[in-house]
UniProtKB/TrEMBL annotation:
Homodimer. NCBIfam families: fabH, PRK09352.1. The gene is fabH. The lineage of its organism: Bacteria, Pseudomonadati, Pseudomonadota, Alphaproteobacteria, Acetobacterales. Catalyzes the condensation reaction of fatty acid synthesis by the addition to an acyl acceptor of two carbons from malonyl-ACP. Catalyzes the first condensation reaction which initiates fatty acid synthesis and may therefore play a role in governing the total rate of fatty acid production. Possesses both acetoacetyl-ACP synthase and acetyl transacylase activities. Its substrate specificity determines the biosynthesis of branched-chain and/or straight-chain of fatty acids. InterPro entries: ACP_syn_III_C, ACP_syn_III_N, FabH, Thiolase-like. It comes from Muricoccus roseus. GO terms for molecular function: 3-oxoacyl-[acyl-carrier-protein] synthase activity; beta-ketoacyl-acyl-carrier-protein synthase III activity. Residues 244-248 are annotated as: ACP-binding. The keyword Plastid does not apply. It catalyses: malonyl-[ACP] + acetyl-CoA + H(+) = 3-oxobutanoyl-[ACP] + CO2 + CoA. This is Beta-ketoacyl-[acyl-carrier-protein] synthase III. It comes from the Bacteria.
Length: 316
């Protein structure tokens, strides 16, 4: 049986980073570091430079993922890129990345699932590798999210940041519960709740309380579903790498799994919510600093506009 394994991870953050106080001063916001950090855990975020595109950031993250896997770009059969902030309707941002990496074969396309985009892209890429449509795939989450923020709306503009993360998936024929592979992905959406988190007139609008309420219950059920599908118990999970929207939601999921806080990868304090980029950025950080080791069981989960939500289990 063919499955896919995460062979490399990479991340990219724009050079410019603003603290809550710097952001408030720059955009003349009636807010405070205390309000933002107590409710969300966010202390700073990166902001893309003028002219720095979603594809630029994605390509930088992809290059690190390739290097970590010891792979040449010519190995890549497919690029699947999740973003809510594509550089244009077409060409897709994935195809722009393909060109930047000098890849002129295979296929590339974007996925739109807001903050759940990376889990969706991982699910699609894993299914395509299992089906034999490609042998290796770059799965990327990349966002220039600060370009769709309303800087007069303090309820949303303090929450998001820019960046990109990537993983290289390779086909593997290894079998058995201890083998390195993506074990399963679980994707959901429910358009009835589309209006609580949406882009309207080009800018993000959110009913924060409503989103919070859905997040805790839907993430919990996706996590239960992923564990049950693999006959695993929560005590089998070595790392939780959650979507990074809000530290209170992240802590609630860590408690649900009975994981000590040092087993939960957190970047929201420094990155804020980078939407589809948040999980692969967190994976890249935890692989780079040696926390996640080959063989470790990693649980990922995310929720975002749509509503969309989902979970993935992978043995690194
Ligand atoms: N600084 C200061 N005050 C702010 C503020 C800010 N940045 N943003 C909102 N407020 C004010 C509101 O105006 C409101 O004031 P009022 O009571 O005078 O009207 C008050 O704070 C409470 O607003 P509310 O939106 O109810 O706050 P909250 O406690 O729900 O916290 C969030 C807001 C956004 C932090 C919280 O709802 C949240 O994290 N939700 C989940 C969001 C999320 O994860 N989204 C991404 C999913 S991918």
């Amino acid at each position: 049986m063919v499955r896919s394994v995460i062979a490399g991870t990479g991340g990219y953050l724009p050079a410019r980073s603003l603290t809550n106080d710097e952001l408030a001063a720059e955009f003349n916001l009636d807010t405070s570091d205390a309000w933002i950090s107590e409710r969300t855990g966010i202390r700073r975020r990166h902001i893309a430079a003028p002219g720095e595109s979603t594809a630029d950031m994605a390509a930088a993250a992809a290059r690190e993922a390739l290097a970590q896997a010891g792979a040449d770009a010519s190995e890549v059969d497919a690029i699947i890129l999740a973003t809510a902030t594509p550089d244009s309707a077409f060409p897709s941002t994935a195809t722009r990345v393909q060109e930047k990496l000098g890849i002129h074969k295979g296929f590339s396309f974007d996925i739109s699932a807001a903050c759940t985009g990376f889990v969706y892209a991982l699910g699609v890429a894993d299914a395509m590798i299992r089906a034999g449509q490609c042998r290796s795939a770059l799965v990327i989450g990349a966002e220039a999210f600060t370009r769709i923020l309303d800087w007069t709306d303090r309820g949303t503009c303090v929450l998001f940041g820019d960046g990109a993360g990537a993983v290289l998936l390779r086909a593997t024929e290894e079998e058995g519960p201890a083998s390195r592979a993506i074990l399963s992905t679980h994707l959901h959406s429910d358009g009835r709740h589309g209006d609580i988190l949406q882009v309207e007139g080009g800018l993000v609008r959110m009913a924060g309380r409503e989103v919070f309420r859905h997040a805790v219950s839907k993430l919990a059920s996706a996590v239960d579903e992923a564990l049950a599908a693999n006959g695993l118990d929560k005590s089998d999970v070595q790392w939780l790498v959650p979507h990074q929207a809000n530290l209170r939601i992240i802590d609630a999921m860590g408690r649900k799994l009975g994981l000590p806080s040092e087993r939960v990868v957190v970047t929201v304090d420094r990155h804020a919510n980078t939407s589809a980029a948040s999980i692969p950025l967190a994976l890249a950080e935890a692989r780079r600093d040696g926390r996640i080791q080959p063989g470790d069981l990693v649980l990922m989960e995310a929720i975002g506009g749509g509503l969309t939500w989902g979970a993935a289990l992978a043995r690194f």
